[in-house]
Design a protein that fits this description.
The chain is of the alpha+beta class. Helix content is 26%, strand content 25%. Strands 1, 2, 3, 4, 5, 7, 9, 10 and 11 form a 9-stranded antiparallel sheet that branches. α6 crosses α9. The structure holds fe (ii) ion.
């Protein structure tokens, strides 16, 4: 993995190396990394908190009388009163309004990709405020910015790959397929976070944070699709292209249930659907599933406004071509190569323009060309003719470069 010194993961996890973190802790066990008080000073502070209040979704968290966690959506004008009454103020996706945080996430996304998204929330809490005991269905990296916080948490993850946040409260814990026992809090470890400290908790780790005096902290988390979600996402367009799958289940007369036998009309529908999905599943292969994964990779790379080449004539052999970092991924499928494009980061939370290509399919002979692109920052157009041992014709090079410029994966500076 290409980790850069002093940026991205290295900057976040210092002095633990990203390689060590991913080998020993990521998605495995908690990690506490003490840091110098100013470690995160250039990422966020109280001024950034106040500046972000009017720009992001706000929630107030509180412990109710039963000691269980509750959250309310609030408006900026309600922040002071909620904070004064002991609630924790949560700023959702604060990286969207604060440039140093979006830069950190961009650096992280240049080093690691997930079929999902990295985000950062901010939590500002008064003395003793906190959350009830719960675990999340996603990993979290807590960065203490100002003040202090006591994190009591289970020493190991208590449940592998939970599908939802699970909070202690009345009733059953977790989804019907999750067999979750209440935690033994006497076994919890206590981690006292001070400014510059980081705490990593994998999903499924019980925790209950509590502010010690005023506390300002960031939580970076990752949401990445599960294998189950990937399969569902792959199947949906396949099934929904067929009216038989879109049609509502039959309306059955009550009398038809009186015999204890399954109504014939219901049996027929279910039998047909089951036969059909078994046939459709048999046509799926790993390339089709991988396509879904590629299509949902973390958006990264391009800046809007740079997608289109400047109005000009044909590609010149001396034109300088810059490769937009992280803008494309490609996958060989049989005799073809499918190139997947990732929309600009600015389109993460709104649809990218419909005319922005999402993928193109070209011959597998282009594979050496694409592999070379993946490790090249800049080249002159004619050099691409020698990106494979056999060489490419100028027409081939021109065609592929034009397509990649159109998709925003390459930028052209004409040789004037
Ligand atoms: Fe949590």
């Amino acid at each position: 993995m290409a980790f850069r010194e002093d940026r991205g993961w290295s900057r976040l996890l210092h002095p633990i190396s990203p390689a060590t973190f991913f080998a020993e802790h990521y998605d495995r066990k908690p990690l506490y990394i003490p840091g110098r008080p100013d470690k995160f000073a250039d990422l966020f502070d109280l001024d950034a908190y106040y500046a972000s209040l009017g720009q992001v979704e706000l929630k107030a968290g509180l412990l109710n009388r039963a000691g269980h966690h509750e959250e309310l959506v609030i408006q900026p004008r309600e922040v002071e009163a909620c904070y004064a009454s002991g609630m924790t103020i949560c700023l959702g996706a604060v990286h969207e309004s604060h440039e140093p945080l979006s830069r950190l996430l961009t650096d992280i996304k240049r080093e690691t990709v997930v079929a999902g998204e990295f985000r950062v929330n901010c939590y500002y809490s008064p003395d003793q405020a906190g959350f009830g005991t719960h675990f999340d269905n996603r990993a979290v990296w807590v960065m203490q910015i100002e003040g202090e916080k006591e994190w009591r948490h289970s020493p190991e993850r208590a449940f592998d790959a939970p599908t939802n946040l699970v909070a202690m409260g009345p009733g059953r814990l977790g989804a019907p397929w999750e067999d979750i026992a209440p935690p033994d809090e006497s076994q919890f470890v206590s981690t006292h976070l001070k400014p510059g400290d980081l705490l990593y908790l994998p999903s499924g780790t019980w925790h209950c944070p509590r502010g010690i005096g005023r506390s300002l902290a960031l939580s970076m988390y990752v949401t990445s699709m599960s294998a189950h979600q990937l399969l569902m996402k792959t199947l949906e367009p396949i099934l929904c292209a067929d009216a038989a799958w879109r049609r509502e289940m039959p309306c059955v007369e009550v009398d038809a249930l009186a015999s204890g036998e399954m109504p014939a009309v219901l049996r027929q529908v279910l039998r047909d659907r089951l036969a059909d999905i078994q046939a459709k599943i048999a046509t799926l292969d790993v390339d089709r599933l991988a396509t879904t994964w590629y299509e949902n990779l973390t958006t990264r790379g391009l800046e809007p406004g740079h997608r289109r080449p400047a109005a000009r004539g044909q590609l010149g052999r001396g034109d300088r071509i810059d490769v937009v970092e992280g803008a494309l991924t490609f996958l060989r499928t049989g005799e073809d190569v499918v190139i997947h494009f990732h929309p600009p980061a600015a389109y993460t939370h709104r649809p990218a323009p419909a005319d922005l290509p999402r993928e193109i399919v070209i011959e597998a002979s282009a594979l050496p060309f694409l592999r070379r692109l993946a490790t090249t920052r800049s080249f002159e157009a004619h050099e691409a003719m020698y990106f494979s041992e056999e060489g490419y014709s100028w027409e081939d090079v021109e065609g592929v470069i034009d397509a990649l410029v159109e998709a925003g994966a390459l930028r052209v500076t004409p040789d004037l």
